[in-house]
Write a structure and sequence with these properties.
The chain is an alpha/beta fold. It has two domains: about 230 residues, Periplasmic binding protein-like II (D-Maltodextrin-Binding Protein, domain 2); about 100 residues, D-Maltodextrin-Binding Protein, domain 2, CATH 3.40.190.10. The protein has 14 helices and eleven strands. Strands 1, 2, 3, 4, 5 and 11 form a six-stranded mixed sheet that branches. A hairpin with a 5-residue loop joins strand 1 and strand 2. Helix 10 crosses helix 11 and helix 10 crosses helix 12. It is globular, with a radius of gyration of 20 Å. It comes from Paenibacillus haidiansis. Pfam families: NMT1. Keywords: Signal. This is ABC transporter substrate-binding protein.
């Protein structure tokens, strides 16, 4: 594990914790406003409550259900005026943990790392049931198995988790992670980097993999979940903070009722949902959004009884894996990290 990357991660977590403590008592972005009104189902005007949800990254098909819930009036029907916003420089986790906004998009790894450092994030829904990420290479690199990573250049961003996952699946294949050359991709995208100085990288197939298909640049892909059940973790997830969950549960339930409807709509109507995302974010590539949405929509709920459902063993398995590899300093209190209580029945 690279010491510099580990120090950077520790510093980031400390910033998150300080932000959370500094904003103790806040519940920003979730206060009732009396100025905004809309028509209720009875035809009477009712005040809407202004609420913010912050994305983890630029808008993509992981987020479609949020945009559908806003476009189709599902939030409004719950009395909410929801603003979907991009993360600030501190990131979505810090904004939610501090109470600057009540809801955000995160991932299981971030919640796990944060909670073991005292950051009060709580996962309230799994956006996708199974991990769709993996290591991808252009087919001309001949990377068919983890053993083939030896002697190749991996492009990443310097996270200790990257090397740990590579080591984990390479160990299982009898390969040596020390024979991989690690290259920091910086601001380069996958397609630029593989033409420049790397052979493979960690991607989400629903976006980068689908884009490769559309470009006519086929990939060899090894999904990390196929090498260990402990790596079939939730990414992304929807989060809130402990204060909002404890002091305003009705807000969380209302937000999740509408959000669930948004993702269920996207499951049943992928092309229409893609159009809604494109209407909200017209700069996105239409062909990519439509193809990605068709691929991803059935994976939102997959084999779960309902969209958003989280399993304790998934949280336990991945946090155990992280602890075994010194990616977190103490075991996770699993039952405090996630809840299904705010999902509609």
């Amino acid at each position: 594990m690279k010491k510099q990357a580990k120090r950077a991660l520790t510093a980031l977590l400390a910033v998150l914790l300080l932000a959370a403590l500094a904003a103790c008592g806040q519940n920003g972005g979730a206060k009732p406003e009396t100025g905004d009104t809309s028509s209720s189902g009875s035809g009477q005007s009712a005040p809407l409550r202004d609420v913010k949800v912050v994305l983890d990254w630029s808008p993509n098909t992981n987020h479609t259900g949020l945009y559908v819930a806003k476009d189709q009036g599902f939030y409004e029907a719950e009395g909410l005026n929801v603003e979907i916003m991009l993360p600030g420089s501190g990131g979505a986790d810090a904004m939610v943990a501090s109470g600057e906004v009540p809801f955000g998009v995160s991932y299981q790894e971030g919640v796990t790392q944060g909670r073991t450092q005292g950051v009060p994030l709580v996962s309230i829904a799994a956006v996708i049931q199974h991990n769709t990420s993996g290591f991808a290479a252009p087919v001309d690199r001949g990377i068919k198995t983890p053993k083939d990573y030896e002697g190749k250049a991996y492009g990443g961003w310097g996270s200790p988790v990257e090397e740990a996952i590579l080591k984990s699946i390479m160990d299982g294949a009898g390969a040596d992670v020390d024979k991989v050359k690690f290259v920091n991709m910086g601001e380069a995208d996958y397609f630029t980097a593989v033409k420049r100085d790397i052979d493979f990288a960690w991607i989400f197939y629903a976006w980068t993999g689908i884009e490769a298909e559309l470009r006519g640049e086929p990939l060899d892909m090894q999904y990390v979940k196929d090498y260990s059940e402990k790596l079939d973790y939730y990414t992304p997830v929807i989060v809130t903070n402990e204060k909002t969950a404890a002091s305003d549960p009705e807000l969380v339930k209302a937000f999740m009722r509408a959000t669930s409807k948004g993702y269920e709509y996207a499951i049943d109507h992928p092309e229409e949902a893609a159009d809604i995302l494109l209407k909200a974010v017209p700069d996105l590539d239409k062909d990519l959004v439509v193809a990605s949405q068709k691929w991803l929509s059935p994976k939102y709920r997959d084999d779960a009884a309902r969209w958003g459902e989280q399993k304790r063993e998934v949280w336990q398995n991945y946090s155990d894996w992280m602890y075994e590899r010194n990616l977190i300093e103490k075991p996770l209190d699993t039952d405090s990290a996630f809840t299904n209580e705010f999902l509609p029945e």
